[in-house]
Specification:
Belongs to the GrpE family. There is one protein chain. By secondary structure, the protein is an alpha+beta fold. It has three domains: about 80 residues, no CATH class; about 50 residues; about 55 residues, Nucleotide Exchange Factor Grpe, Chain A, domain 2 (Roll). The protein contains four helices and six strands, in the order H-H-H-H-E-E-E-E-E-E. Strand 4 and strand 5 form a beta hairpin. The protein is elongated, with a radius of gyration of 40 Å. The chain starts with a helix and ends with a strand.
């Protein structure tokens, strides 16, 4: 038997099988409809159908709630992961801040000396260190004498009588610089306020 004849025979067998299944399904549907209307089970059929619809709606609602909860979970974890990456080096950077303060103090003292080569060398190290920290997200908070004191942003270490009326309730001196990492303040500027 050739391959073509085998394919035709398989197709005809599939068609006859398909026809038989359709006939059986048609008979079953006809019997179900006949029995429901003949024996008064039509009401039971409708109530069962309504019950199944209600169950389906309940499951759809559960599914939608679960899907929404999962989407919220994905969004929240994604946001937390991004925040974690932004502040991953916070401990290391915070521990480097005293070194940066020491470099600032060293620069101030070296500028008083006459040695220009020493000043130039320390300035290069200071600038490189500052730029490296800035690349990691560190930002110095701009606080200067005469700014309004804000307890949410500044840390007052003492209060002195204001040298002038303009400085009452304002910052008189900045003792230690403050820094931010991203949007988060990692060290509050320590200031002296006037009263």
């Amino acid at each position: 038997m050739s391959e073509k004849e085998r394919n035709e025979e398989n197709i005809s067998e599939e068609e006859s099988l398909k026809d038989q299944v359709e006939e059986i399904l048609d008979e079953a549907i006809g019997e179900a409809e006949g029995k429901g209307s003949e024996s008064g089970q039509d009401e039971d059929y409708k109530s069962e159908k309504d019950k199944l619809k209600a169950d389906l709606e309940k499951e759809k609602d559960k599914f939608l709630r679960l899907f929404a909860e999962f989407e919220n979970y994905k969004r929240r974890t994604s946001k937390e992961r991004i925040e974690m990456f932004k502040t991953a080096g916070q401990d290391v950077i915070t521990s480097m801040l005293p070194v940066l303060d020491d470099l600032d103090r060293a620069l101030n003292e070296i500028t008083k000396a006459k040695d220009k080569d020493l000043l130039k060398g320390v300035q290069l190290i200071h600038n490189k260190f500052k730029e490296t920290l800035r690349a990691k997200g560190l930002e110095q908070m701009e606080v200067k004498e005469g700014d309004f004191f804000d307890a949410d942003v500044h840390e007052a270490i003492t209060q002195i009588p204001a040298p002038s009326d303009k400085l009452k309730g304002r910052i008189v001196d900045v003792v230690e610089k403050g820094y931010k990492l991203g949007d988060r303040i990692i060290r509050y500027p320590k200031v002296v306020t006037g009263k």
